[in-house]
Specification:
By secondary structure, this protein is α/β, with parallel strands linked by helices. Helix content is 35%, strand content 20%. It contains 5 helices and 6 strands. The chain has a 6-stranded mixed β-sheet, sandwiched between helices. Helix 2 links the parallel strand 2 (51-54) and strand 3 (76-79). Helix 1 (29-44) packs parallel to helix 2 (58-70) and helix 1 (29-44) packs across helix 5 (157-163). The longest helix is centred in the N-terminal third of the chain and has 16 residues, at 29-44.
Length: 164
């Protein structure tokens, strides 16, 4: 069985003149602080992750690093273009397949990709809205296209911070 955690990156700097290249926009100090509390709550809930697959963009890499530092399992981090804006669900599923035997994989990405991916993985018709820092867990016996996942839980950033 595979436990797959989908994570939208935390609060990032606004687009604008300071970051003309969107791929370099970092997390804000508030975004880092809030996500540290969220990741601490995940650890408190016993969430274990073997590997974190992340978009190569700065804000997702930073979110992945905070998650990796916060959980006891100390997962490795792998950047993949499949999770970058414009990546496809098929490419993400292929990447996940490379790590599925590890049992617990986290994906850190962007909206609308994460919401669309979650919907596809569980067989829903409409995307699921991921606020910045939102996380869901989907369990699989068999990865798509041969199987669909079971949504085990979906938590908002505020819920996780309250748990911390």
């Amino acid at each position: 069985m595979l436990e797959l955690y989908l994570v939208r990156h935390a609060i990032a700097a606004e687009r604008g003149d300071e970051y003309p290249d969107d791929s370099t926009r970092p997390l804000t100090s508030q975004g880092m602080s809030r996500f540290r509390r969220e990741a601490k709550a995940l650890d408190g809930l016993g969430v274990s992750v073997a590997v974190i697959l992340t978009s190569p963009l700065a804000r997702t890499r930073q979110t992945a690093e905070i998650l990796a530092e916060s959980v006891k399992s100390k997962p490795s981090i792998v950047a993949t273009d499949a999770l970058a804006p414009g990546g496809t669900a098929a490419a993400v599923i292929q990447e996940v397949g490379k790590h599925a035997r590890k049992g617990n994989v986290a994906l850190v990405g962007h909206e609308p990709n994460m919401g669309e991916l979650a919907a596809r993985l569980i067989g829903a018709r409409a995307p699921i809205e991921f606020k910045k820092g939102a996380i869901c867990r989907i369990d699989f016996d068999v990865l798509p296209p041969k199987g669909t996942g079971m949504l085990r839980w979906f938590v908002t950033p505020r819920m996780l911070r309250k748990l911390a």
